[in-house]
Input
Amino acid sequence: MSIKFNFSEKRFVVTGATSGIGRKISIDLASAGATVLAIGRRTERLDDLKKLFPENIIPCAIDVNDFELLKNDLEKFGEVKKIDGSVHAAGINKFTPLRAFNWNDAEGIIKTTLYAGIELVRTLSAKKLTAARSSHILIASVAGIKGEIGFTAYSSAKSAVIGAVRSMALELAIKDVRVNSITPGWLPTEMTDAIEARYPGRIDTIKLQHPLGLGSVEDISNLAMFLLSDESKWITGSNIVIDGGYSIR
Output
């Protein structure tokens, strides 16, 4: 990253920290001096992250859908010093074509993507936990603004994230708390690797639909760092699309 941010003495929460976008944002925040509560379900991945930044990464192996555990760990993290923001990058995706729609799968996608993100911001916006000018980011997807065949549940959840962000931003502005969403295009991640493994050639087709080609988790993290910093102090309720031109075709 050519632009350097200084997050010394700042404290952030990142969900989905064990892979993809969440992992990269955790690393970049820690590199900039922040203390990061890194939340994920895979303990060994969290341990690897901790080894990279033993002084800056606090691993937290929980399921974000367990709201009681989530609240307890957030409050414990906030006891030392108030929290400056969060990134909700946790999410799951499954192929949910209408002809074989599975409501259990759909519920899991929506709970992890949407409900857990709302609960994260709701909890962190409490007076005893939120620092002045705190900033929160929920990771959406181009699937939420430009549908994908077979991904009804995922598209619905990501679209709802964008709407929820707008409402939360209005409600929390009086506290000087900002809430924004980032909408990435397709990125090479474990999730897209799984789709490629199941549907060979699909990613090649998708790549051709991105005028600037596929991006990377670094592209998303660069934007997240800006939105978490005071340099973006007049941005709230926004959904910023970063997709190499995919959604404007």
